[in-house]
Amino acid sequence: MLVESLRLLNFKKFKDQAFEFNPDVNIFVGDNNAGKSTVLEALEIVLNFQYRGRPFNNEFSPDLFNSDAVAAFLASSKTPEDLPVLVIEAYMKNVPDYRGANNSLLKDAMGVQVKASFDPDFLGAYQDYLATGAPITSIPVEFYKVEWMDFAWNVIKPMTKKFRALYIDPARIHPTFGKNQYISNVLNTALKKDEAYRLSLNYRETLQSFNDTEEVKEVNRELDIDNRITDKKLTIAANTMPAGALQNGLQLEVETVPFHMIGKGEQSKVQIKLALHNKSKDIDLVMMEEPENHLSHVELSRLVKDIEDQRDEKQLFITTHSSYVLNKLSIDKICLLHDSYKRLNLLDKEVVKMLKRLPGYDTLRVALSKKVVLVEGPSDELVIKKIYKDNKGRLPEQDGIDIIVVRGVGFKTFIEIGKEIGTAINVLRDNDGDYLNNVVEAQKEYAAHPNVKLISSADNNDFSLEPAMISANATSEKELMAFAKIVLSAKTYNLLAKEPTFDDKRTFIVEWFKSKDGDGKGKRKVDSAIRLFDTTERFKYPDFLCEVLSFD
Q1: If you compute the radius of gyration of the chain from its CA atoms, what whole number of angstroms results?
Q2: Residue from 442, 338, 341, 327 nearest 400 by CA
Q3: Structural contact between residues 52 and 12, judged by C-beta atoms closer than 8 angstroms
Q4: Among 74, 141, 169, 245, which is most exposed with the fewest C-beta within 10 angstroms?
Q5: pLDDT digits 0-9 by tens, 350-402
Q6: Is the pLDDT of residue 520 over 80?
Q7: Count of other CB atoms within 10 angstroms of residue 493
Q8: Chain segment 178-214, per-residue pLDDT in tens
C-alpha cells in the first residue's frame, strides 16, 4: 500500500489543501508553525484513527477546525447547514478493496476517509439548544459524528484494515507518562493477533503462578485472621485480568536501567530504532517526527543510517529541522511547507548524489529562506552584514535575508535547490580577473530563472571583494590610508606606510589580500573583515554590493 496524496478540508491551518507524495521518502520541512506536524497528525488520524497516540473520536474537539471555517460559522445563523465539515482523506494505491467514490472529489479511487460532520440524529436536540438562545462561541462538536470509512463506503475497523502504519514521535513519550500506551503500540505493531493473545495469556499465567507462591500464601494466612474487616476470607493477589494488564506490567530497560531513567537522547534513539526494527512485520509505512531531537551529530548519523537500512522500501514520512537528515535521506524528497506546498522531486540528480555523500552542508537554510545571499567566504559575509547594518540599522537576517557562506560544494548546489523552490537568490561572485567568461557566461545559465542573480564587479582589476573595496576607498592616498587603518593590523599598516608612492601603496595592499592555496592569507581576509565589521569609522563600498542586498 502507498499513500499517493492527502486532502485536508477545514483541518487546523488547512482550509482546503492537497498534498502529493513520493512513493518512497517524504521529508517535510518548513518554518515553525508551517504545518509539518499537522500533516503527520492528519496521516495518523486517517491511517490509524488516532490523534497524538489516543483514539481520535475521544480527542475530537473544536480546536481541530480551521479558524476561517470557525469564523464563518460564528458569523452565520448557525443552522445545521452552517456547521462546517472536517475531512481528512488519504488517496492510496494497491488497496483494491478500498476503491469507490466515497470522497470529497467524488472520483473513483482507492483510499480512506475520516469525516466529522453534523449528526442528523441530533437535529431536534440541536434545534432545542439554539432555541434557548445560549451563546455559541465555538464549533458544537457534541452534535457531531466522526466516521472512518474507505472509499467503498465501508466502515473501517482497526483489526481488519488492509494496511499497517506506524507513527513514531519521541517527544510524545514522557519518561513515565504514556509508557504503557507506547509499549501497547509497539506490541500491536510487532505482533500478529494470535501472537499478542498468546503473550497476554502467558503473562496472565505467570501472574497466577505468583499467587501460588509460598510467600503470598503466608501473607494471606495472616491477613485479617480475626475477621475484623470481613467475615469472609480476605486475600491479596496479583491482578490477572485488567484491561491493559500486560502493558501495565512491562517496562523497557537499557543495560538493566529502567527506560525512564536513561538520557533523553538515548530514549529518543531507542524508541525510534525499536519501532523501526519492529516494522519489518508487515508495516506498510512509517511516520516519524524530528528524529534529530536530543542526539549528537555522531548518534544522529548512526540513526539516519539505521533509518535508511530499516526502511526496507517502505514509504516514509518524516519531519526534520536537520540539514544532515535532509541531505542524507535525499534532498530531492523534500516536501516543503512554505507559502504553498512544493516537492523537489525534479532536483538535479548530481546535486542529490553529492549531498548524500557530503551531507554536512546547511542546505535547509536555502529551502526555508525567501531571500538568500550566497557568498564565497566568511569575510564576504561580514562585509555584507556590515554594509547592511550601516544602511538599515539592523542585520540582514532581521529582515529575512539569509547570508550563506558557500564552501566545498560550490554555488551550483545551493542555486539548484533555490531555483526549484523559487527562493530569491543573489550570488556574490568573484570575477577572478575575467568578468566576461567567469560571470557573464554563468549568468546565461540562469537566464530562465529570474529569482537567481549572479553579481560581481565588472572591472577585471577588482577580481574579488577585497580589491573592489580597496578601489572604492582609494580615490586619494589619504582615503586609502584611512581605509587601511581600519582593515590592517598595526604592523602591516606600518609596512604599507613605508611604500613611497600612492600607486605602490595600492599595489601593496591589493597584493597583501591576494591569497593562494596554503599561504594562510584566507585568515588575513577574515581578520580584516572582523575589523571592518567592528569599526565605527565610515568607509565606502562598490556599487555592485547594493545590488547584492537588493531584492525585487
Answers
A1: 32
A2: 338
A3: no
A4: 74
A5: 888 888 888 878 888 888 888 999 998 899 999 999 999 999 999 999 999 99
A6: no
A7: 15
A8: 455 556 666 666 667 677 777 777 877 787 788 888 8
CB 8 within 8 A of CB 30: no
Q: Catalogue the E-assigned strands of 303-400.
A: 315-319, 334-337, 341-343, 371-375
- Across 390-418, b (16+ Cβ under 10 Å) vs e yields eeeeeebeeeebbbbebeeeebbbbbbbb
Instruction: Annotate 314-340 with b (16+ C-beta within 10 A) or e (fewer).
Output: bbbbbbbbbbbbbbbbbbbbbbbbbee
Grid cell listed for 144 = 457531531
Span between the terminal Cα atoms of the chain, in Å:
45
Q: Residue 410 carries which DSSP code?
A: H
Is this prediction's pTM over 0.70?
yes
The answer to whether the CB of 116 falls within 8 A of the CB of 85 is yes
Position 483: which residue type?
A: F
Give burial (CB, 10 Å; 0-12/13-18/19+) of 548: buried
Place of cell 580589491: 467
Q: What is the pLDDT of residues 86-119, one digit of tens each?
A: 999 999 999 999 999 999 999 999 999 999 999 9
Average pLDDT over the chain, rounded to an integer: 86
Helices 264-278/179-190 angle, 10° precision = 20
- For residue 188, give the C-alpha cell: 500491536
